[in-house]
Every structure is written in structure tokens, then in C-alpha cells.
Amino acid sequence: xxxxxxxxxxxxxxxxxxxAYELEAAVPLLQKIKYAKFDETxxxxxxxxxxxxxxxxxVRGTVVMPNGLGKSKKVLVIAGGDKxxxxxxxxxxxxxxxxxxNKIQSEGWTDFDAVIATPDMMRSVGKLGKxxxxxxxxxxxxxxxxxxxxxxxxKEIKAGKVEFRVDKTGIIHAPVGKISFxxxxxxxxxxxxxxxxxxxxxxxxxxxxxxxxxxCSTMSPASRWTFRRTPRRPPYSSVWGAHMKxxxxxxxxxxxxxxxxxxxxxxxxxxYEKLRVxxxxxxxxxxRGAGGKYRVVKNNLAEKASEGTPAEPILxxxxxxxxxxxxxxxxxxxxxxLTAYAKANPSFSFKAGIVEGRVIDVKAINDLANLxxxxxxxxxxxxxxxxPAQRLVAALGAVGRNLAVVLDQGCKENKFTA
Length: 418
Prior knowledge:
15 strands; five-stranded mixed beta sheet
């Protein structure tokens, strides 16, 4: 038989409409309908489009709430030597080594909220898997609780570090603060969580990633909420209006891009649709290695920034996901690096380019990549200049070596005696 709901709960339910709210509206509503006499915990529940039964679709990670969680966690640090002193100075509640492991094993002691261990202690801590594992307290390198920097780990947990992990039904449950927090603080915490979850999206996940999002407190009914758009690329996109860039920040981005375009005579416009975060990081490393810069841009921002610059013809009327690689030095080296990367990553493609002020198409970029780079040409010139001198030094050295051998042999045979 279903448990009868109380009058206060039913009153709260009537105030929640059967629709999805914006996050900025869902938080004040939650604070309005509260009726409990204690400071409730606010929780976010995300239903993801993943199948946790498959290892390559597991979603887990950590995020430090910018405004904390409203309560201080009890932290146990299992370490040895100097690391115990570091943990105590950082504010750990319990510090020890094998003695703490024995206490947990023999007494079943679990009066703590988080466990941090150093790698050298994991052989002993591993014995506690059956006790700590079911409670979600087992140290793990992926969540930063197995580390040599115990001081940093303790401070992060004390500051409001939250570990999230998708359960077997494909849902993430995580706290984001207390109901007494100002609404904007709760919004900021929830935004940080959803951004971290989106960054943790596994490559094997297909279709819609975040299927639904729900906000509730300990005793209140839940309200569905939505965000204006799910960012395809979390590092470069905003999640909610509260995190949209301010007008002055946009102007700074525009001026920064314009300066780069004015200084760079060599620009390659590229597309990066379906490029994963790991591939993007690799691409940036490749571009830096070739002496260039790489940035993802909005098409309208690129068009405005390019006005009056040599790159204006190739940055007007762009469509789709756009990025740019540019350099003030050798365009051939950059073209070689980008072409090699494009062959290994089909999701990356060229749109157009400009070299020394002249617009070139995709075919010309590929032809440019086949030319020898400036460094290769200089290396060959240095070889040609140095080769005769090297041969002369080698010959002179050979004469000296041969003379020494002759003299040594003569001495041995007494050919120089009177």
C-alpha cells in the first residue's frame, strides 16, 4: 500500500507546474515551496543516454563546487611519514597509516565522509574494499583520492568537492548545496556540475546525452528543469544564461582575434565537427609544435574580427563549426602539420586559407604541405655550406693521425737511431 503524502507536501506539489523550468526559475521555486524546519540539501538528478553495463559508457568524475556544499566533510587520510604531517596541516580530521586500516577492519569504523590514500598505502587499503566500496568511500586515482599531494586533496574535499558516478539505471545523483544558499549560488553550483558531467561524456555514447534533469531538496517534490542548450564543446560553450559571456568580455575576444589576424599573414580556416576533446588537445599540441596558434571561433565573431584584415575574404559567410590555425612564421610547416593531422582524423577538414596575403583553396593547401619547410631548406643550405669545411678538417685530421702512426712504428723498429 502506497504511503499517504502529507498536507504540506501536497501543497508544495500544487505549486510545481507540469513543465520544464529554466534553472534560474527552478531554484527560486524550490526555495519558495520548502516547508521542512531544517536546512535541506539541494540535489540534482541527471538521466543520461548511456548504458552503464558497458565499460566504455561509464560516466564518473569530480567537481569542486564554487560555493561549497554548506557542510564540512570528515576526511580520513591514510599515508606514511611526512605525508601524515602534510595532511594534518591541511585540515584532515583523521590521519594514520596501517593503524587506521586495522581499526576499520577490526571495528568496522566508518565515521568519516571521504578517504584519501597515498599510492604506497594502497596495498593495505585494498583490504578494505568490502567495507569502503559499498559506501562509496574507496580511494580511487580517477577521483583524485589516491594521490601524493594529500594537502591539495584534503583542501578540495573541504571546499566542497563532489564525486559523481552514473548508477546502473543511467542516472547521476549529486548534491549542489543547501536550500538556504542564495539562488545565484545554487545556480552556479548546478552549472558547474552539469558542465563537469558533459565534459565526462564517453566517446561511445550515442544520441542525446542528457535526457532529463531534475532539481529537488530533501523533503520537497522534484521539478524538471532545462537548460537553453547542451554545449557540444563544454570548454568553449556556455550552458546557461547565467554563464553567458558579458558584453565587455565579448568585445575583448573580438579585439584579441582582430589583433591576431592583423599580425598573421598565414591563416587556415578549418572545420572540427565531431572532434573529441582528446583529439582537440592533440590538435592544439600539433599546431603549437609548428609555431602556430589554434582557436575555435563563432562564425559571426570571426567575420567581424576579420573586417579590414587580409583574412577577410576567407572569414565571410562561414557555416558550420569553425576553427582557425594561424602563424606569423612558416606557413609550410603549419600546413604540413595540419594536413598530417587531417589524414589521421577525418573529422577535421580544411575550408580555405590565406598565405602571404593570397587566398588559396583546399587543393592549394595540400600542395603547400608537400613543399619543403623553411627549416628543411635552411638545414640543406647549412649542410652544403659546411660540407667542404668538414671534408677539409677530416683530411687534415687524417694526415695527423697517419703521421703519428708512422712515427710510433718507426720508434718501435728503432729506425730513428743514429
